[in-house]
Amino acid sequence: MTLEEFKATLSHSTPPENLSKPLEALWWDANDEWDNGHRIVQDLEEPDAYWVHAYLHRVEGDLGNSNYWYRRAGREMPNISSNTEWEDIVTELLGR
Description:
The structure is a single chain. This protein is an all-alpha fold and about 100 residues long. It contains six helices and no strands. It has helices at about 5-10, 20-30, 35-40, 45-60, 65-75, 80-95. α3 (about 35-40) runs antiparallel to α4, α4 (about 45-60) packs antiparallel against α5 and α4 (about 45-60) runs antiparallel to α6. The relative contact order is 0.16.
C-alpha cells in the first residue's frame, strides 16, 4: 500500500485489515480519533509504537511526554509540521 492508497482509506468507517497496530493508530488519529490511536499504541512494547506514541503526544501538545517517547523510539522530535511527520511515519511504516 502506498501513502496515497492509505490516505484514500481515511474516508472508510474503519481502518483496512492487516495494518500494523502503529499504522492503525495513525489511521484513527487522521480520522480525529486521537484517543483510539493512543489506546492502541500506549501499551505496545516496540520502537514503531513508541514513535507513533511520541507523535500523538506531540500533536496533543504534551511535549515533555512526547520527548520521552521519541527517546524510547531512538529518535528526536523533528522540526517539521505534524502533518508532514504523519506522512513520513506512514510512508516508512508502509515500506516495511
